[in-house]
Design a protein that fits this description.
There is one protein chain. The chain contains eleven helices and twelve strands. The radius of gyration is 23 Å and the shape is elongated.
Length: about 350
């Protein structure tokens, strides 16, 4: 972002774009006064195209900013994101900045609503999960005039700054470890990917690495909603019944992987001799399983820390130099469900 692009948009910008007075723009956006329907539509279309968000605190604070950092994540039920929030808090606790959290449920239209509401309170910075956004969300982020840090993913071009891992690389490295261990008949289970871009990228990297060695995924299953642990058990049962020749099961996250592991152990299946397993995320709460699941640490807490460090450095007076594009390297934990050779 150039310094020029960081200037927050004003009513005048919307006025010029829509060809009506600032007073009319204000009436439309505050939903007050008599304004014709064609004019209202024109003003709202111009505001949306520009990424303009009304300022709810204009006039209340001289700086038109509050000491809030908007943190927008897709889920609180997914154990990944509380750990990211802990990392953010590790850094912000030592400053006057406070995180305020919005949840999108992986829905682009909900992300637009959450982002609109949060920006209307003029936070000092934004930390938002993912690099994929709707056109309206991207316009708002671009026009916000504050530090924008996209987290969890670095497979793409950020609006401003980004901190995360390459999910395509993570998928490739897990596939290579599976192949080195001698597994060749692979099944995959994961979330429905149109809603989870990072899982999709891991799947792409995983399948590409398998294909280079002439191996294809022989069975796959996807889920949305409900208990991931239960879904993992159910999908694993169904897949093993459908495809008994499989010798490895790769899960898009540790929770469904844990469900699959419990099912296989109950059935007396030799893990990892007969069937190997691996998940993703390196969740600490799964350390109590009868067997340690192979996984890959997604650097969750460190992602939160580094994102918050970028925000605080950029907001310092004077601003501090900081690396804006940070790619961390996850490491495979072979656990007790993936043979090593």
């Amino acid at each position: 972002m150039s310094e020029k692009n960081k200037r927050p948009l004003t009513l005048r910008d919307v006025s010029e774009a829509s060809g009506v007075s600032e007073m009319t723009v204000s009436r439309v956006l505050r939903q007050r006064g008599d304004v014709s329907e064609p004019t209202r539509i024109r003003v709202l279309a111009a505001a949306k195209a520009l990424g303009y968000v009304p300022n709810k605190i204009a006039g209340a604070l001289a700086s038109n900013r509050v000491n809030l950092i908007a943190v927008i994540i897709p889920s609180l039920s997914n154990m990944v994101f509380p750990e990211v929030l802990n990392g953010i808090n590790d850094v912000l606790d030592e400053t006057g900045l406070q995180p305020v959290v919005g949840v999108t449920d992986y829905l682009p239209e909900k992300e637009e609503r959450v982002l609109y509401e949060m920006l209307s309170w003029r936070p000092s910075g934004i930390i938002i999960a993912g690099l994929e956004h709707s056109d309206a969300s991207r316009a708002m982020l671009t026009a916000a005039g504050i530090p924008v840090i996209e987290i969890m993913d670095t497979d793409g071009k950020p609006i401003d700054a980004m901190v995360g891992i390459s999910h395509r690389r993570a998928g490739r490295e897990m596939a290579q470890a599976i192949l080195r261990a001698g597994y060749r008949h692979v099944g995959f289970m994961g979330t429905k990917m149109p809603l989870d871009h990072r899982a999709r990228k891991r799947f792409e990297g995983f399948t590409q690495a398998l294909a280079r060695e002439g191996v294809e995924i022989e069975d796959r299953a996807f889920y949305s909603g409900g208990s991931a642990l239960v879904k993992g058990r159910e999908m694993t049962r169904d897949m093993i019944e459908r495809s008994p020749e499989l010798d490895f099961l790769y899960y898009s996250n540790d929770m469904i992987g844990a469900g699959g592991l419990l099912y296989l152990l109950e059935q007396g299946i030799d893990v990892p001799g007969q069937v190997g397993l691996a998940g993703f995320n390196g969740l600490d709460l799964l350390q109590g399983l009868p067997r340690q699941l192979a996984t890959m640490d997604a650097c969750r807490r460190e992602i939160g820390r580094r994102a918050a460090q970028i925000v605080t450095a950029r907001l310092a007076d004077p601003p501090q130099e900081v690396e804006n594009h940070v790619t961390l390297a996850p490491v495979i934990n072979y656990g007790q469900t993936l043979k090593r050779r």
